[in-house]
Amino acid sequence: MDIVLFLKALILGIVEGLTEFLPVSSTGHLIVVGNLLKFQTTGEVFDITIQLGAILAIIFEYKHRFAHIITHIGKEPATNRFVLNLAIAFIPAAIMGLLFSEQIKHYLFNPITVATALVIGGLLILWIEKRQTRCQPKVRSVEEMRPRDALVVGLAQILALIPGTSRSGSTIMGGMMWGIERKAATEFSFFLAVPVMIAATGYDMLKHLNEFTRDDLLLIAIGFIAAFLSALVAVKALLRFVAHKNYIPFAWYRIIFGGIILLTWVTGWVKW
């Protein structure tokens, strides 16, 4: 039993859960932290699997909403419109992911790309939040969203294919730029994460099924549970936060974190 390896799995699970739904890029953090910890186990399988733990936290937090959708789809116009909006927002990134996922993982999955995307994304968040102070939102709730609103969010989500950009960050900020109120954009991003991440995770798991080994099951279980619990905390906290505040603190976090990585790379302090 390698206690150090289990501790690394626990840390990465917590990192995944805390960052999956914040606009700071969970994939980017996993790449950077995994690189620092020199975490070597099942290739991509560990990262892929623990994402399901974070997604399960969203399903648990909104269990009554999902139950309502399942029981009322096809019967209630509002539910039908909501499901249609999710489908529309899901499609653009799904198509681009299928076409270019291998190239993106080969060329862009490295700490320097992540750091650059973190800094650029942070600057964009600062600009968008400043813009929000001068513009009144046109859509104030998820229920008010129209198919064209969902399409804009879906197109913004394409940017999240670049590691370090953040899926939640791109969808939330894209929605806010379009005129969706901050809390509504955040909630829609949460809901959209479920089909997107389940589809992406399922696809990757099938591709890497032969990499699963019995010895790694405990590591995966530790990371999965840690991701679920930490994501549950992060989702609840974020919803409370955005009800009264903006995303500027996350923007500065991105800029500082990404800047530190780039500084250590340029100076040679850390061999990324």
UniProtKB/TrEMBL annotation:
Catalytic class of the enzyme: hydrolase
Transmembrane segments: 41-62, 82-101, 107-128, 188-206, 218-239, 251-270
Superkingdom in the source lineage: Bacteria
Subcellular location per the Swiss-Prot or TrEMBL entry: Cell membrane
Primary location recorded for the protein, binned into one broad class: membrane
GO CC list: plasma membrane
Annotated function: Catalyzes the dephosphorylation of undecaprenyl diphosphate (UPP). Confers resistance to bacitracin.
Family: Belongs to the UppP family.
The protein's name in its UniProt record: Undecaprenyl-diphosphatase
Gene giving rise to this polypeptide: uppP
